[in-house]
Write a structure and sequence with these properties.
This protein is mostly helical. The protein folds into two domains: about 5-35 and about 45-150, Orthogonal Bundle (Ribonuclease iii, N-terminal Endonuclease Domain, Chain A), CATH 1.10.1520; about 165-240, Double Stranded RNA Binding Domain, CATH 3.30.160. It is about 55% helix and about 10% strand. A three-stranded antiparallel beta sheet has the order 1-2-3. Strand 2 and strand 3 form a beta hairpin.
């Protein structure tokens, strides 16, 4: 397994109880395999399923608090819809990939050889398990800070337009209204096997990078890039016109 100290730096949290992070990264396949007789590495006795269950509850609470506080006029249905944007496997897998959690997973040999490090369910579960581990290590406020830090671009876009379900269309309207032109999307990198591709996209206007995103398809990567661009432009009255000459 890769160095967990590097992962702690990426997470922005140094664990007092290191065993919690190890547990959060241990897939159930490890427990279901027989340990080699000559192995000097002790076999784990606990996988991350309990932490994943716990982390899911912490994530739901943190997101509920965010949308409840920031949108005082939204009704129950609207709040539920906004929260659901973030508490789904697609989003959690995206966040796990950004943290390179797959590199740190402790998998059984069968799961390893079948592409388990890039599997959506494994990555989403690991992300929730990490949330649960941070909560148990340092409390709700630490877990809440972690969740908000990972979701910052998406949450910023949500505040700019809580009803926007089409970020690429919204970004295009923003750019056209100001400049009469369309933004340009480019796929800058792709990696992984055919069954688990990983794409990176940027969106540009007039040679200026507005946003960057990653996803399991070109469409998802471009959508994430659009979210990031909207968040950036929403904090700048001039948008792309403000770039230096």
């Amino acid at each position: 397994m890769a160095d967990l100290k590097q992962l702690e730096e990426r997470l922005g949290h140094q664990f007092r109880r290191a065993e919690l992070l190890s547990e959060a990264l241990t897939h159930r396949s490890v427990l279901h395999e027989s340990s080699p007789n000559k192995s000097t590495v002790p076999k784990p006795t606990t996988d991350n399923q309990r932490l994943e269950f716990f982390g899911d509850a912490v994530l739901q609470l943190a997101l509920t608090e965010v949308v409840f506080d920031r949108f005082p006029h939204a009704d129950e249905g609207e709040l539920t819809k906004m929260r659901a944007r973030f508490a789904n496997r697609h989003m959690l897998c995206h966040l796990a990939r950004a943290l390179l959690l797959g590199d740190y997973l402790h998998l059984g040999k069968g799961e390893e050889t079948s592409g388990g490090r890039s599997r959506t369910s494994n990555l989403a579960d690991a992300f929730e398990s990490v949330i649960g581990a941070i909560y148990l290590d340092a409390g709700f406020e630490a877990a809440r800070r972690f969740v908000l830090a990972q979701l910052q671009p998406e949450l910023a876009q949500l505040e700019a337009s809580p009803d926007a379900d089409n970020p690429k269309g919204m970004l295009q309207e923003m750019i056209q209204e100001r400049h009469g032109k369309n933004p340009l999307y480019r796929i800058t990198n792709q990696s992984g096997p055919d069954h688990a591709k990983h794409f990176e996209a940027i969106v540009e206007f007039d040679g200026l990078e507005l946003g960057r995103g990653v996803g399991q398809s070109k469409k998802e990567a471009e959508t994430r890039a659009a979210y990031a661009a909207i968040a950036k432009l929403s904090g700048s009255p001039e948008g792309p016109a403000a770039k230096p000459s």
